[in-house]
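debug: dumping io for the single-chain case to check the tokenizer round-trip. Nothing else runs in this session.
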Amino acid sequence: MRSHEARVALYGNFGIGNLGNECTLAAAIQGFSRHIERGRLFGIVADAAGLSAVHGIEGVAIDQAETGPETQEAGHTRPFAGRVFRRLAHEWRELRRARMTLRDTSALFVVGTGLLEDDTGALGWFIALFRWILAARLSGCQVGFVSVGAGPLRPGLPTLLVRATLKLAHYVSYRDETGRNSMKMAGVNVEGHGVVPDLAFSLPSVEPLVDASDSLDGRAPRVAIGAMEVEELVSSPGEREDCMQRMAECVVALVRGGAILTIVYGDVKHDHLFAEELLGRCHERLDAGCRGAVTFKHTLGWEDLVAELARQDVVVAARYHNQILALLQGKPMVALAYHPKSLDLAAQFGLEQCAEHLLAIDHERLTRHIRELWENRAPFAVNIRDRVACAKTDLSGQFHKLAGYCEESGAQERAARSHTFGGKQ
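debug: decoded output
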């Protein structure tokens, strides 16, 4: 090994309490560490503080706060031309910082998550992504998008930014066909772009997958239900209240039917209060003797979530990575879909007949789904096990391929690459 090895950057929306994103980064670190030294990895992330303590790698912030006075006087905002100039100056400073950060970097990989999903209505995320990818190419880095979630995209500037960003990449893979098709519809040239399962499938299970010989033993089914704050998915407080009521009805119906429920969540910042409120609503409706059948699992890390899901028989989840982590443990799951990616995932594992729309969940249908999955959990487990094994094989091959992009190049070769913006994707 050479005395000096160029570093490898892992880019993504990490460090903000989304457990699905954090398990994706953990999977990326573990996957790359099997082929290159862990010490060469560093993160370009939303919140760099504490990244080393959680993941054991150095962190760099995607964006730094703008400098200078915010306003002239109270109630008087800066003129439009001034705001434009200030933003351009900020972007120029950030581009220079990105280039300095990537000076000794051989490859930048955008790893997993829904980085190319346009569901926030904000351009800032796409602008920052384009800035870092441009800086990487100017610095002579290899650039890859690794099992990312994508689309749909709004027309106009969001689509143009994503097209330009992907054109700069040497390697692109999407985590499902839905994402690849969305990019094709947006005008992206997807020839040569692959489809490789979500990175989280490369994580190890915390216990052996359910054996096909598992027999029905008469005990009550253990069911985890993933609570998700739906405020950003609805147009009024009334719709949020309706969803909360529907979720509570489902939990109460399952408990009265003999199930043991655990409420979990997938985002510490956004879902925690929704989950606590759901627990309170359920306890209000249940008799004192039944309230103990519904508990709330407070989790701060993705490992805690995995351990909790492994104890369940069936998982009901809205968060995409809650669904994946359930499947990773061999658990049949009901997808509460709010995005096509969940329907695509359920179909891949033969569970599409149990998928429900998150905002239209019905307790009678959900009870039937749980009963079907519980009574047929052994054959479902066999199918899930086989598909997870295939996903792990595909991901292992992808990490092996990407390791080749991480090899340090000579200074002249890297300088030559920096002027080639039409690299093969």
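debug: round-trip ok. The longest strand covers residues 105-111.
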